[in-house]
# Entry
Amino acid sequence: MVALLDRRLVFVTGKGGVGKTTIAAGLAQLAASQGRRTLLCEVDAKGHVADAFETEPTEFTPREVAPGLWAMSMNTEASLREYLGLQLKLPLLSRIGPLARTFDFVANAAPGVKEILVVGKLAYEVRERHYDIVVVDAAASGHIVGQLAAPQAINELVRVGTVRDQTGWMLEILSDPAQTGVVVVATPEEMPVNETLELSARLAEETTVDLAAVVVNRVLPELFTRGEEELFRELRTPEGTAALREAVGGEVDVVLDGAELAVRMRRTRAEHLADLRAGLPPGVDLLYVPELFQRTHGVRATAKIAEALGAELGY
Amino acid sequence: MAADRASPVATSLEPLLAAKEIVICCGAGGVGKTTTAAAAAAMAAAHLGGKVLVITVDPARRLANALGLERFGNVETRIPDELFAAAGVEPRGELWAAMLDTKQSWDELVRSHAPDAATRDAILANPLYENITGRFVQSHDYIAMERLYEIHASGRYDLIVVDTPPTRNAIDFLEAPERMADFFSSRLLRWLTVPARSRAFTVASRPFYTVADRILGTQFLQDIAEFFLLFQTMYDGFVERARAVERTLSDKRTTFVVVSTLEPSPAREADFFIEALRRRRFSLGAVVLNKVLPTWFLDRDATRVALRLARDPRPLAEAVAAAVPRTGDPAQVARVLAEVGESFLNFQVVATREAEQRHELSRHADVVATVPYADHDITDLAGLLELGAALWR
# Structure
């Protein structure tokens, strides 16, 4: 099994709302802090990556947002222009202005074309060795399979042409677990866990890309040991609460309710975690990132996530 | 739609669900849209009466089971009254549910718009058809709106609650009908279909095809062109339909409910969505905030107590251990008290952030409903109605 950060292309995906971008940013930060020249690419350009590093909005042209860490946002039209310029050696890019628009339209309608412009750009960065590692804040779990399967689909649909020729080397990079891996982010809740398990199965069936790891985000700390929890139950009895109230000289119910809620939340999440562990194929790394109880985005949060991931990966 | 205001907002969806015919729930992925839509519909059926339909996209298995919907497709299914009875409720109306099956819905659409049987069969058998309807931009969004229009126009229901598909961009589906109409009337589409109509390309389209040929290969281009040519035969029907769908969305009888949690990124998407509704003059009926922590985490007295427990638990622990001997070792009591205090303060950080976010999101809505964080998943109709009660007060 290749260590996660030794791969060259890492797609980070997950259900909406689980902290996909934060984890991708943390992973990129961690890689960069180890001296790896790192590119972080936001595929659904929503500006979350810029938030994670508190910088200006990212663009198609990568910009260094932290030492050794470049960030960019995907833009299929720009990707197409770059491709046409590079592959077809078209001299006058200005003349393909309306052409690119037309092509963008075809790309919208034709299956897999838009996807391949995304995956192709990323694989190109890997092939050219512009970076040691490319971390992708990829499409959410509903769309990632279509994206990763695009080269294969194009390869089957298109019988000749430049695009077809291009899918060969892309597939080689994507299908090599030493180079490419998918990281699925989940929170220990019902829907994210189910979606992670479904995605894991679909990745195996419909794509050639290796599932490298599952990151469980927002894991709540264990509040009490078994003995301590019994003691906490004593404090929840009328007698125990009265004694504490007397000692404090004020209302304590609300504070105890807060701890009760934390204990119950942790317990429900533990059940979902167990389902996740049981449902994943053997050999998939599980990385745990604790609930931060702090700001959930920005430089500070990104650094904390990077630290937590580093600890989990043994750095 | 209210502008910034000082007066407190209403918190119940009841008047909205009683007055409107179509309620569209939207918001970022993972915020509980589906559950909210189902709970709102269940409450309307239980307390307002009439025939209520909820159209869901991809319900959690347990939620589907809670509605008794292990197997269902495009067909509208009635939720049996026994399920309500088991939840201790005698419903005034009927609750129906349907799931959106994109493929099946597209097939039906093609069947109803194809000019003749030959075109219909040619489209349905086209190798690109499945791929294109499955992945075509906004194809899910469009079909959801189209289906909604059709069901509403049939007059079978008093109220339809829609759970919108998870989109990359929450506003995509607002634009879906418009884009679909644009697509079919666009010059680009006519351009694309040129090679299928004639081998002699027009001068204007030549540079495009020269490059496109080199990139995609002629055969593939031909396949695409043939497909679009077939599709174009449905032009009039499609455009007319897309316009009608668009009109339904802006009708007075339709309203939108924006669902969000109070985490920064879904909240920002919700904000964005509210703005998009305003721009298009669509009605924002309510904002529903899900998974919200109790506000008592912000209580000042409790904070003081939590701080004491966290910082200096030992004297308190000794007093408690003395008063209730079975609590045992004061050192262990002190550890528990410190944990209790720390945990409260941790959650308070989150609750404070949530309060701020809530204030932001409440500015533009007349109704803001809050659903407290639930530590259990919904497994039956009773659970759904319990959640629904939070939307009803």
About this structure: Chain A has a mean pLDDT of 88. Chain A touches chain B through 78 residues (CB under 8 Å). The domain at 4-220+281-312 of chain A is CATH 3.40.50.300 (Rossmann fold).
